[in-house]
Specification:
Layout: H1 2-58
Length: 74
Amino acid sequence: MKIQEVVQNGVTGLREENRELRRRQDRMIADLQESREETREEIQQLRELADLLHGFAIAPDSTLQQPDAPFSGR
């Protein structure tokens, strides 16, 4: 009878540890998913910025001038 109690207590303890590990795992997975979504949004913003900057880099000089100030050539 004593051995059965020890085994039962051990099994109960392991089940509790297992449940806690699963809860921690679920929280970690949720945190990772949130971080992944934030990273995707930031990457998209960087792509949009890169496209915008690329447009400025290949634009002719005349498009970068002020419309009210004529180019003096100096």
